[in-house]
Amino acid sequence: MLSFDMPRTLILSLFFSASLLGCTTQEPAPTSQASSIAYPTVREWLQLSDSVGAMSASQVQSKLLTVKPPASATQLFLYGLLKQQLGTPGALAEASQSFAILEKNSALADDHRQLAGILRQYTQSRLDSYNRERELQLQEQRLQAEVATAEQEKTDLEQKIQALTDLEAVISTRKEE
User: Fold this and answer.
1) Residue 87 — left, alpha, or beta (φ > 0 → left; ψ -120 to 50 → alpha)?
2) Distance between CA atoms of 65 and 60, rounded to whole angstroms?
3) Cis peptide bond prior to 89, omega within 30° of 0
4) In terms of DSSP H, where are the helices of the chain?
5) DSSP 87
6) Fewest CB within 10 A of the end CB: N or C in the chain?
7) What is the rounded radius of gyration, in angstroms, for the C-alpha atoms of the chain?
8) 94: helix, coil or strand?
9) Per-residue confidence (pLDDT) for residue 64, from 0 to 100
């Protein structure tokens, strides 16, 4: 049993020996070529997400020129992040598609697919929000046009009523004469 009185170097050497011993065991042979592909860790993908989130629109545009067409999962992930960062409806749709492809990619680890799924849902919700906002703006414009038309009709009716009242007054005056 290790005690805290042991020299620090002895504890570190035991730790490294144990970790190296774990590294020398044989790994099982890969079952397919897809499972032998090494992908960055989810942490690296999250760091990539943070760096893209800090980019300006012009930086995103210039970076997009270097990533097209995405050839690897990481490039597709980056492409999705960049499109998501642009925030336009078309770009959000492309980002959502990119994340959906990654989410369905069985060669990726579960945590990568889960991250892609979360980002797809988030991107899709942003796109849905944009579409709802646009629909509400169009509805507001239609309603404003209807209000303007109704106000004009009201003004026209008031003028006609006034004209009839004036005509009635003239007719009454003539009858009295």
Assistant:
1) left
2) 9
3) no
4) 8-23, 42-53, 57-67, 73-86, 89-104, 110-176
5) -
6) N
7) 34
8) helix
9) 86
Spatial distance between the Cα atoms of 169 and 177, rounded to a whole number of angstroms: 13
Residue 48 and residue 78 in contact, taking contact as beta carbons nearer than 8 Å: yes
| The token pair that represents 154 in the structure block | 């009201």
| 57, 86 Cβ separation under 8 angstroms | yes
What pLDDT, in 10s, does the model give residues 36-88? 455 678 888 899 889 899 998 889 888 888 876 778 898 899 999 999 999 89
- Residues 131/149, Cβ–Cβ less than 8 Å: no
Q: Distance of CA 155 to CAs 50, 149, 163, Å?
A: 58, 10, 12
> What mean pLDDT do residues 110-139 have?
95
Cβ atoms within 10 Å of 47's Cβ, excluding its own? 12
Rounded to whole angstroms, the Cα distance separating 78 from 51 reads 10
Those residues whose C-beta lies under 8 Å from the C-beta of residue 115, and which sit 6 or more positions away, are: 42, 45, 46
Q: 88-117: buried (b, 16+ CB within 10 Å) or exposed (e) per residue? A: eeebbebbbbbbbbbbebeebeeebbebbe
**Residue the block writes with tokens 């006034």:** 162
pTM of the model: 0.61
The Cα 166–Cα 159 span in angstroms is 10
